Amino acid sequence: MSLTLIVFVVGLIYGVVNPGKEDKLGLLKKAIIIGVAITLIFTVLFFVFTAPAWVFVPFIPILGGIVGIFAGVLIGLYFGIVFVVGAFVGDLIESAIRR
After folding, report:
1. What is the pTM for the complete model shown?
2. Contact (CB, 8 A) for 15 and 85
3. Residue-level pLDDT at 9
């Protein structure tokens, strides 16, 4: 099963279970913040585990860290958008059930 599908289903369940309309922009902001925090943790771990490479090739850990931060933020944004779309569909299902 795809991770994107899992995130969508979790967003769908979140939208159906929580009563009322969800704050989509607030959810997206929280997803970005969580994505950035996880990215920073993995970037620090990358720097720690590639520290011996600094002696021989100093630009690889720095380049990898910069690319890692950029990729992590994009991945967090992607999954945040998928979650918000799932919550939106869940809100539509919830409103259809309540009518």
Report:
1. 0.75
2. no
3. 92
Side chain identity, residue 25: L
Query: Taking a C-beta distance cutoff of 8 angstroms, is the pair 40, 69 a contact?
Result: yes
Residue with token string 């995130």: 7
Nearest to 80 by CA among 40, 38, 41: 38
The tokens describing 18, both together, are 């929580």
- Measured distance CA(9)–CA(49) in Å, rounded: 35
* Contact of 66 with 28, CB cutoff 8 Å: no
Query: Cα-flanking dihedrals φ and ψ of residue 31, to 5°?
Result: -65, -40
Distances (CA, A) of 24 to 11, 14, 17: 11, 12, 15
